[in-house]
């Protein structure tokens, strides 16, 4: 992974994407239509969601099925390969939920130290 040419870097880039891990977890319960996905992921723009879905499909993590009906219906579903990510993502989510408060406390402490370091004696801030 440390080698710049290591293929695992591509995997980390894909699952480390801001929206990809959320989309994968939302699809854990089964296929969804685009509008359902967008509602469950929240705040993602249609353009960005489309890009993420195309990337995940290209990487073999989900399938896009078009149903010939009026209006057309398109479902997105995890592939067997995509489903193998659910375990690791669940572990990461559990870790995040258990440690988010500690990380936020550390962030606040860091910011307080940084703010204190830029204060000059007498309380004036350096430019």
Radius of gyration: 21 Å
Strand/helix succession: HHEHHEEHH
Indicate how many domains the architecture comprises.
2
How would a textbook summarize the main sheet? 3 strands, antiparallel
Shape: elongated
How many distinct helices? Answer: 6
Structural class by helix and strand composition: mainly alpha
CATH class category label of the largest domain: Mainly Alpha
- Please report the distance between the alpha carbons of the first and last residues: 41 Å
- The percent range for helix content is 55-70%
Low-confidence spans: pLDDT under 50, at least 5 residues? none
Strand content: 5-15%
Q: Got a strand count?
A: 3
**Which strand order does the major sheet show?**
1-3-2
The CATH homologous superfamily of the largest domain corresponds to: Winged helix-like DNA-binding domain superfamily/Winged helix DNA-binding domain
Q: Mean pLDDT score, rounded?
A: 89
The CATH architecture of the largest domain: Orthogonal Bundle
**CATH topology annotation of the largest domain:** Arc Repressor Mutant, subunit A
Write the layout of secondary structure elements.
Blueprint: H1 8-15, H2 20-26, E1 32-33, H3 34-41, H4 46-58, E2 62-67, E3 73-78, H5 80-83, H6 86-118
Antiparallel strand pairs: 1-3, 2-3
Summarize the structure.
With 127 residues, the protein is mostly helical. The chain has helices spanning 8-15, 20-26, 34-41, 46-58, 80-83, 86-118; strands spanning 32-33, 62-67, 73-78. It starts with 7 loop residues before the first helix and ends in a 9-residue tail after the last helix.
């Amino acid at each position: 992974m440390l080698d710049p040419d290591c293929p695992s870097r591509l995997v980390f880039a894909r699952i480390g994407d801001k929206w990809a891990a959320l989309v994968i977890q939302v699809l854990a319960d089964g296929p969804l239509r685009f509008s359902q996905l967008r509602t469950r992921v929240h705040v993602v723009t249609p353009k960005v969601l489309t890009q993420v879905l195309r990337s995940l499909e290209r990487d073999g993590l989900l399938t896009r099925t078009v149903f010939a009906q009026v209006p057309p219906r398109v479902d997105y579903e995890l592939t067997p390969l995509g489903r193998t990510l659910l375990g690791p993502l669940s572990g990461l989510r559990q870790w995040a939920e258990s440690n988010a408060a500690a990380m936020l406390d550390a962030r606040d402490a860091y910011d307080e130290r940084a703010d204190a370091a830029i204060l000059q004696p007498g309380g004036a801030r350096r430019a």
